[in-house]
Amino acid sequence: MPQKVRKAVIPAAGLGTRFLPVTRAVPKPLLPVLDRPLIHYAVAEAAAAGIDQIAMVLSPGDDAIADYFRPNVRLERAFGERGDAVRLAQQKEINGLAEITVLEQTVARGLGHAVLMARDFVGDEPFAVFLPDDLIWSVTPAIAQLARISEEHGGSVVAAKRVPQEAIPNLGIIDAESVGHGVHRVRGLVEKPPLEKAPSDLAIIGRYILTPGVFDRIEYGSAGALGEIQLTDAIAAAIGVEPVHACEFEGDHIDAGTPAGMLAATIYEARRRPEFSDAVAALGLTRA
Ligand code: UTP
To answer: Where are the domains of the chain?
Structure first.
C-alpha cells in the first residue's frame, strides 16, 4: 500500500555559478522574486500540499536561508508594540509554514549527493524533492499532483514539461509512454542529451517524489555528467525495479535559476499580484 508523502528535501547547496557575481555573497535561494526569496515559494508549495517536515541541504555558512523561516524576534516585538496585527500575522505565518531541519553538504558534489545528505531525515518512507529554482504556479500544488500519482501507482514520480528543441541539451529528458491524462510510464531518463540522441521533448522539472531506495542507488552509482553525482541516474536505475512515472503537471513553470529566468519570474509574479498593478501598468505590461 503506497504511503502518504509527509517529508520534503530542498537541495540548496549548489554553487550558483549562473548567478555570479551576486552568489559570491548571497545564496541563490535567498534571491527575491519581488518581495519573497526563491526558497519561500518552494516551502509554501510544500505546505500547501500538506508536507510540513522539510530538510534543507545547505552549504556551510548559509544559515541565513534557514533563519528566514525562524521567528524574527526584533520584527515581532516592533509590530507587537505598534499594534500592527496584520504585519505581525504575516511574519508568524512564515515561521509556521513548516518544521525545518538544516543539513549540510560540505562540498558541492552534485544534486544526487545533496539528496543523499537527507538519508537519516527521510528514513523509510517516500519523500518529495523540490529544486527551489523551479517556480510553478498552479491551482493544485505541483508536488500534490505528483504525490497523487505516487499514492496511486507506488514508486517514484518526476515532474515533466514539454520544452522547445534548443532547451533539450541542457535538461534531463524522459523516454516515456502516456498511460493517462498527464501521466507517463517512464522507460528511460537521460541527462543533458545531444539533440539527435534525445528520446523526446519531455523534460524533467525540479519536483520529485522518491522512494528511500534512491539512496542506495545514489551511493552505489558512479559519477555521471561533469563528474557530479546525478539524481537522474539514480532514478533511472529504479526503472524495472519499481514503478517510475512522469507527471506532466498542470501549471505555469519558470526556471528562475538564471538572471533572465528570474526576470521572467518577477514579471509573472507582478502581473498576478494586485498590489503591483500600478507598477505593471507603468511598465506597459498587462495584468495576468
Ligand atoms: P544546479 O545544477 O542548478 O546548480 O542545481 P546550482 O549550483 O544551483 O546553479 P549553477 O548551475 O551553478 O548556476 C540544482 C539544485 O541542486 C542543488 C542546487 O542548490 C539547486 O537547488 N545542488 C546542486 C546542491 O544542493 N548541491 C550540489 O552539489 C549541486
So the answer is: 7-282
131 lines ligand 1 (CB under 6 A): yes
Give tens-digit pLDDT for 54-77. 999 999 999 999 999 999 999 999
Tell me, using a 6 A CB cutoff, whether residue 12 lines ligand 1: yes
Q: Is 132 in the pocket of ligand 1 (CB under 6 A)?
A: yes
Report strand pairing: 99-104 vs 53-58. parallel
Low pLDDT (below 70) residues in the chain: 1-2, 222-228
| Domain over 7-282 is classified CATH 3.40.50.720 | no
Q: Is the dihedral of CA 76, 78, 82, 87 positive or negative?
A: negative
Compute the distance from residue 105 Cα to the ligand 1 centre, in Å.
11
Fill in the DSSP letter of residue 239. B
Give 155 Cα–ligand 1 centroid separation in angstroms: 25
**Where do we find the cell 493517462?**
180
pLDDT of res. 230? 85
